[in-house]
Amino acid sequence: QVQLVESGGGSVQSGGSLRLSCAVSGYRYSRLCMGWFRQAPGKEREWVAVISASGGVTRYADSVQGRFTISRDNAKNMLSLQMNSLRPEDSAVYYCAADRGPAGICFNLPRDPTDFDDWGQGTQVTVSS
Fold this sequence. Notes:
This protein has no helices and eleven strands.
């Protein structure tokens, strides 16, 4: 069982930045494909970004490409999402998630949230105009 705990959410004005963190335990973190998802009221859970187990490969949804950066520190069992140039449409609950499936599907884009095995509790991000 993998346990994930997000932190770093909050309120920010349009154009501002936030950095989300996710602490992971219960599994060898360096073997996990990791992702960030978000869900706004009335909308389906949306894939945001994914990172390979080694951290060497990253992919982003078109809506955040160039503004968000996913990263990981395997020595600290930590996943991060740096969010810059935030827009009101970025407002959502953000979740970190772990995919314990075959490494070959880590970049089967866009990622389906049902393919991820473990989830954090979510952290609220609110961007005001």
